[in-house]
Design goal:
The complex is a heterodimer of chains A (107) and B (120). In chain A, 0% of the residues lie in helices and 50% in strands. With 107 residues, chain A is mainly β. Chain A is globular and about 35 Å long. The mean pLDDT of chain A is 96. Chain B is mostly beta strands and 120 residues long. Chain B has no helices and eleven strands. Classes of the chains: A mainly beta (107), B mainly beta (120). Chains A and B meet through strand 4, strand 5 and strand 10 of A and strand 5 and strand 10 of B.
Chain lengths: 107, 120
């Protein structure tokens, strides 16, 4: 089983700041089958990024993904008030696993 | 518009059973593999099970294998999760989710979730 680790656990930032979230896999993620989701309280997760770096439909370009192999990054270039949420990475190359999440909260 | 609507959650005693349903619309249901993902209160996401487009292949997390059964009725555009021998640690919101492409890719649409509470 591929285990995903996310860091930091919590990121405290102000609107307008840049957020950098990390996701590390215990084994190489095949063909960059790595996605990122955003979840707000009481809501279902929303797909942001797939294939490590492709934005899903309707996702603003302030969200970007990068990485390959075992190290991946989600960057939010300038935080908007609606971006404060929990972010999960997921690998879907070999079964499915999710990381534990990074909470981005308001500083 | 893609819609996934779960139902069937509720309160059940330890050792009991429950069947969840997920009604799908807005896409060709029979062409896509479908999955269940759960989230315990205040916790992260956990993949539970996936079924292929035809229903011929099923996959389970170790934590539920042998207790849960995923199935689908393509004539009714409905996904199911039969849960037996329920434990307190199965308490969670259960989401059904559609894959982005028919048989691979991340989950691009999710239902609103249905809460399962296992308690005496």
């Amino acid at each position: 089983e591929i285990v995903l680790t996310q860091s930091p656990g919590t990121l405290s930032l102000s609107p307008g700041e840049r957020a950098t979230l990390s996701c590390r896999a215990s084994q190489s993620v095949s063909s960059s089958y790595l996605g990122w989701y955003q979840q707000k309280p009481g809501q279902a997760p929303r797909l942001l990024i797939y294939g490590a770096s492709s934005r899903a439909t309707g996702i603003p370009d302030r969200f970007s993904g990068s990485g390959s192999g075992t190290d991946f990054t989600l960057t939010i270039s300038r935080l908007e008030p609606e971006d404060f949420a929990v972010y999960y990475c997921q690998q879907y190359g070999r079964s499915f696993t999710f990381g534990p999440g990074t909470k981005v909260d308001i500083k | 518009e893609v819609q996934l609507v779960e139902s069937g959650g509720g309160l059940v005693q330890p050792g009991g059973s429950l069947r969840l349903s997920c009604a799908a619309s807005g896409f060709t249901f029979s062409s896509y593999s479908m999955s269940w993902v759960r989230q315990a209160p205040g916790k992260g996401l956990e993949w539970v099970s996936t079924i292929s487009d035809s229903g011929g292949s099923t996959y389970y997390a170790d934590s539920v294998r042998g207790r849960f059964t995923i199935s689908r009725d393509n004539s009714k555009n409905t996904l199911y999760l039969q849960m037996n021998s329920l434990r307190a640690e199965d308490t969670a919101v259960f989401y059904c989710a559609k894959r982005q492409t028919p048989n691979y890719g991340p989950f691009d649409y999710w239902g609103q979730g249905t809460l399962v509470t296992v308690s005496s």
